[in-house]
Specification:
The chain has helices at 11-21, 29-35, 61-64, 73-85, 98-110, 124-141, 162-167, 171-175, 192-195, 202-220, 246-257, 311-320, 334-349, 352-369, 407-417, 439-462; strands spanning 40-44, 47-50, 55-57, 115-121, 149-153, 184-187, 225-230, 260-264, 290-293, 305-310, 377-383, 386-394, 399-400, 423-425, 428-431. The protein has 466 residues and is an alpha/beta fold. The protein has a seven-stranded mixed β-sheet, with helices on both faces. The longest helix has 24 residues, at 439-462. The protein binds 4'-deoxy-4'-aminopyridoxal-5'-phosphate. 4'-deoxy-4'-aminopyridoxal-5'-phosphate (PMP) binds next to helix 6.
């Protein structure tokens, strides 16, 4: 639909109502209200439109979730059919619905070997809260109730509930509301720009970053450590891609001390890295005991998340556990599950995961990699369909801008103006485009990003900041 055919929206009135009544997530309301909300009214393929008719390439797949793009009639039809038949029923009292059963079976087909069970939630945060309860229950049932502590990483993102935010390592979140909750500790992230030594190889850094896990386990006493949790690639933290040496060493350490390994695949799952799950990418190569998922399971069309439970845990829980006192009204919501089934079936039928691995990810790597010649840009990296770059004040000496200048936010605003969604995380600019982009979409996205980098440079120059 050309933008001239869009229904007309009264942007000013909508903005005023939004400012008057709507508290946005992760938002400084006062400053948002001063600038005004951007109101998104339509999506088609890999593009969205705002209420003023501007067309924007969605370089972030919504919020890392609209993997199959917007406007998929098959997903709409799946939801409609299920809503007409049975919009809701629960899975509590010896009941189940057809879509929840079908999805559980389908997930066990696409999951890595050893995963035959799933626990459904509404979101990634609830998935990770479920992880905390499952992990502690598992060790209780094995007669080791003191094994409670879960080790995570600074700058990890695992959600916004009390449990999810505690597992996460976002200092800003911890500062609000007395987090983390007891029994969760953090080690440093495998981010070489922050923690690398001068002249250190990536391989050496990866091993050194993994050794922080071993040091923490020894400090706490292995008999007190329940699990280690990590995103294969940290997403919200800024697309931090660890060196290839990192995860195999983490796996070795977890195996050595008998500690559960949890892979938070809320972003990396469902094809984002060119495999059904991120842990299957050779760069990651872990054998987790538990996998958190959400987002891409429905391509974001409806909220759904969950935990894939490996057999080591499922067996103990089922054979010795009795009632697991945990669950949500909408665990296995039939309409959300019906959309997820249609989404996974479409991904299979269209070979989406294979295409990402064989064609799209290498194409993105090359196209995004061309930005490395820009005066502001260094450390361009991608894995599968996530990518990031660093904005440098002086790239020769690797000098970063003063964080107070908010250069990333300036760049993000230019991106929006130039018709592309890119996210700013401190010194990093990141993307996670839909898995259904064409080569032309990627080329156009990269052209718009380059234009935005040029505008950022020109603005900094005009303000005397470079
Ligand atoms: N884990 C990871 C890795 C995530 O990226 C997110 C969300 N960005 C979450 C958990 C939380 O998911 P939700 O917002 O659905 O609660």
């Amino acid at each position: 639909m050309p933008s001239s055919d869009l229904p007309r929206f009264d942007t000013a009135t909508l903005r005023a109502q939004d400012a008057a009544h709507h508290l946005h997530p992760f938002t400084d309301t006062q400053s948002l209200n001063a600038s005004g909300t951007r109101i998104i009214v339509r999506g088609e393929g890999v593009r969205i439109w705002d209420s003023d008719g501007n067309e924007i390439i969605d370089g972030m797949s919504g919020l890392w979730c609209v993997n199959l793009g917007y406007g998929r009639q098959d997903l709409v039809d799946a939801a409609t059919r299920q809503m007409q038949t049975l919009p809701f029923y629960n899975a509590f009292f010896k009941t189940a619905t057809v879509p929840a059963i079908e999805l559980a079976a389908l997930l066990s087909e696409i999951a890595p070997p050893g995963f035959q069970h799933v626990f459904f939630t509404n979101s990634g945060s609830e998935g990770n809260d479920t992880i905390i309860r499952l992990v502690r229950r598992y060790w209780d049932l094995l007669g080791q109730p003191q094994r409670k502590t879960i080790i995570s990483r600074h700058n990890a993102y695992h959600g916004s509930t009390l449990g999810g935010a505690s597992l996460g390592g976002m200092s800003g979140m911890h500062a609000q509301g007395d987090l983390p909750i007891p029994g969760i500790v953090h080690i440093d992230q495998p981010y070489q720009l922050q923690h690398g030594h001068a002249g250190e190889s990536a391989e050496h850094f990866g091993l050194r970053a993994a050794s922080w896990l071993e040091a923490k386990i020894r400090e706490l006493g292995p008999e007190n450590v329940a699990a280690f949790i990590g995103e294969p690639v940290q997403g919200a933290g800024g697309v931090i891609i660890p060196p290839a040496s990192y995860w195999p060493e983490v796996q070795r350490i977890c195996d050595h001390y008998g500690i559960l390994l949890v892979s938070d695949e809320v972003i990396c799952g469902f094809g984002r890295l060119g495999h059904w799950f991120g842990c299957q990418h050779p760069h990651i190569g872990t054998r987790p005991d538990l996998i958190t998922f959400a987002k891409g399971v429905t391509s974001g069309y409806l909220p759904l998340g969950g935990v894939l439970v490996g057999e080591r845990i499922a067996k103990v829980l089922i054979e010795r556990g009795g009632e697991f006192q945990h669950g949500f009204t909408y665990s296995g919501h039939p309409t959300c599950c019906a959309v997820a089934v249609a989404n996974v079936q479409a991904m299979r039928a269209e070979g989406v995961v294979e295409r990402v691995a064989q064609d799209l990810a290498p194409y993105l790597e090359r196209a995004f990699g061309t930005l490395a010649d820009h005066a502001l840009v260094g450390d361009v990296q991608s894995l599968g369909m996530v990518a990031g770059l660093v904005l440098y004040e002086d790239k020769a000496s690797r000098t970063l801008f003063d964080a107070e200048l908010g250069v990333g936010y300036r760049c993000r605003d230019h991106c929006f103006r130039n018709g592309v969604v890119m996210r700013a995380v401190e010194e990093r600019m990141i993307i996670a485009p839909p898995l259904v982009m064409t080569h032309e979409d990627i080329d156009e996205m990269v052209r718009r990003i380059r234009r935005s980098l040029d505008d950022t440079w020109a603005g900094l120059r005009a303000d005397g900041l470079i």
